[in-house]
Amino acid sequence: MPPAIVAEDLRKEYGEVVALRDVSVEIEAGELVAILGPNGAGKSTFIKIVCGVTRPTSGRIEVLGGDPADPEIKRRVGIVPQQGGLYPEQTVRENLRFYSKLYGREPDPEPLEMLEVDRFMDRKAGQLSGGMRKRAAIAITLALEPEVLVLDEPTNELDPMARRDVIRVTKEFHRRGTTVLYVSHDVYEVEQLRPDRVLIFLEGRKELDEPFDEVMERHGSVLEAYEGVASCPGE
């Protein structure tokens, strides 16, 4: 099976600011990859390129065998951004119908039940708490059964029980074969997730790319690996 994502020497410049510096990474189909790094590390820029939201200044990116900006590829990739994702004046049910038509798929109700979103389907998204909106956005994205799922800080604004549920559901859909990019700044959450691989970005560079088990064996914890990268960037 070909890789789900192939990135070669990705570079992204915004004027004089270099947000991404010659990043290369290959992500296999069905992998669960955690992406860590502080604010401004390049994580969000990388996933925006993967999702076809922005173009790299230079380098090559291929997702599911094609151009991530291609509408046909975009329909196979689901993203839950840090903020937004739902139309506030529409109910959760109306948002689900809209995205279902946009992606051309009949939604699977199971994720809505797993994240207990079925309890507030007829409430307007703008009237929900931040945590409820985030759960709804995740559930709707999963209901459309993307082949590649991108979760950008998915547990922000969630209480501990809801965080646990998001991690559980993420692992379940990974088990079913979904390729998952899980962006976080929480090293302890990544340890709970137990991804296949851990990527750490710093100052626009990919500073670490190792299997999770190897990270734990070599460094003792994700925190130790993170601190080691932060103290010796570029080595």
From TrEMBL:
InterPro entries: AAA+_ATPase (IPR003593), ABC_transporter-like_ATP-bd (IPR003439), ABC_transporter-like_CS (IPR017871), ABC_transporter_ATP-binding (IPR050763), P-loop_NTPase (IPR027417). Keywords: ATP-binding, Nucleotide-binding, Transport. Gene3D superfamilies: P-loop containing nucleotide triphosphate hydrolases. Pfam families: ABC_tran. CDD domains: ABC_DR_subfamily_A. It comes from the Archaea. GO terms for molecular function: ATP binding; ATP hydrolysis activity. Residues 5-228 form the ABC transporter domain. PANTHER family: ABC TRANSPORTER ATP-BINDING PROTEIN, ABC TRANSPORTER ATP-BINDING PROTEIN NATA. Belongs to the ABC transporter superfamily. This is ABC transporter ATP-binding protein. It comes from Methanopyrus kandleri. The lineage of its organism: Archaea, Methanobacteriati, Methanobacteriota, Methanomada group, Methanopyri.
